[in-house]
Amino acid sequence: MKNFRRWMCTGLVICAVGVLTGCSFKDTLSVLTGKENHTEDGEVQVLSPDEIATRDESVTAPEFTQNLEGSANYLIHEEAQPLTVEVQGSEAGELTYQWYSNSVETNGGGTPIEGATETSYTPSTDTAGKVFYYMVATNTEGNKFNMTTSGLIAVQVSDPDNMTGEWEDTEDGQKKWKYEDGTYAASTWKQIEDKWYAFDENGNLRKGFFTDEEGKYYLNDSGERLAGWFEVEGSHYYADSDGKVQTGWIEVDGVRYCLDGEGKMLTGWQQDGDYWCYLGEDGTIQKDTTVDGQTIDADGHWVPVEGAESPQAAIDAAAAAAAAAEEPAPESSEGQ
User: Region Disordered: what ranges (predicted)?
Assistant: First the structure.
C-alpha cells in the first residue's frame, strides 16, 4: 500500500512538471526519481534527492500585476501586437516563464510554445483561426518552487478572401459586413458581388467621398464605389476604373476635359499648357468658333490678341475700349 501511494504521488508530480517544463515523460521520470540526468555533453549524472525540485506552497507564488484578458483580432499575415504580462515574485526567488497555446477556452492543458520564455510573446498570424494563449510563471527558491497561471486571451486571425459573410444592420442605423467567424470587415475595402465597398475602423460601411493613401473615392448611398462620370450636388466628377477621382486634364473616349483640385468638372476659359481653351457647359473643348468676342481655332486654342496675356484680359480690354467709345465727347470751349 505504501508503494502504491508513493508511485501515485510520483505520477501526479510527473504530470505537473511535464506540463510546466515541456520535458518528455522519460526525462521527467528520471528527474523525480533521482536516477539520472543527461548533460549537454550526453553524460549521465545521478541526482540526489536534494537536487530534485518540488512544488512547495511556502514559496511565494508569482503575482500577475498585468494580466491577460479579452481578445485580439487580426487579418491573416497582419503584424500582431505582443501579448505582455508583468509578474512579481520574491526577493529570494528566481522567476521563469512559459507561454502556452490552446485550441479551447481554458488556461490549462495547452501546448508549450517553444522559445516563448519571456514576459512578452507575439502570436503568429500565418494561419486563420482562433487560438487561446496564457502564460505560467514559476518562482523558484533553491530546490522548491511555486507557480501561477495567467488569465486567458483569445487571438482571432481572419482570412477574408476565403470566408463567406453577410450584411448586418446595427441598431444605430449603420451597416456592417459580418464574416462567418463572427468578425467584421474593418479599415478595409471589400468586394461583394462584383461591387467594392469601404469600411471604417469600427466596421461601419462608408458613404460619400472617402480618401485613403491611394486616392480619393466616392461611395453612393448604398456604399458602392462609383467609376466613370457621376454627379454630386450639381457638380460632375470622373473616377477611373479603380474608382479614383481624377483631377486636372483628362481624356475620356477621345475627348479632353478639365477637372479642378477637388475633381469637379470645369467650364469656361481654362489654360492647357501654353494654350487657352474654352469649355462648354458639358465640359468639352469648343473649336472653330467665337466666344465672348474671342476667336478659337480649329484645334480649340484661343487666338491671342496683341497686348493681352489671356482671353479674359482681351475681353476686359475690349470692354474698356467699347465703354470709352460710348462716352460723349467733351464740349468745345470756342466761342466762350
Answer: 314-336
